[in-house]
Amino acid sequence: MPRTALLEIDFQPWIIELGHDSGTLARAGSVREAQRSAGALVVCTRYLSRDSADPLRSDPAGVGARFHPAMAPLPGDLIATKFDRDIWSNPDLHAQLGLIGVDRLVITGYLTDFGVRIAAERACSLGYHVTVPSAACAGSTEDEHRLALESMVAAGVRVD
Question: How far apart are CA 72 and CA 66, in angstroms?
Answer without folding.
Answer: 8
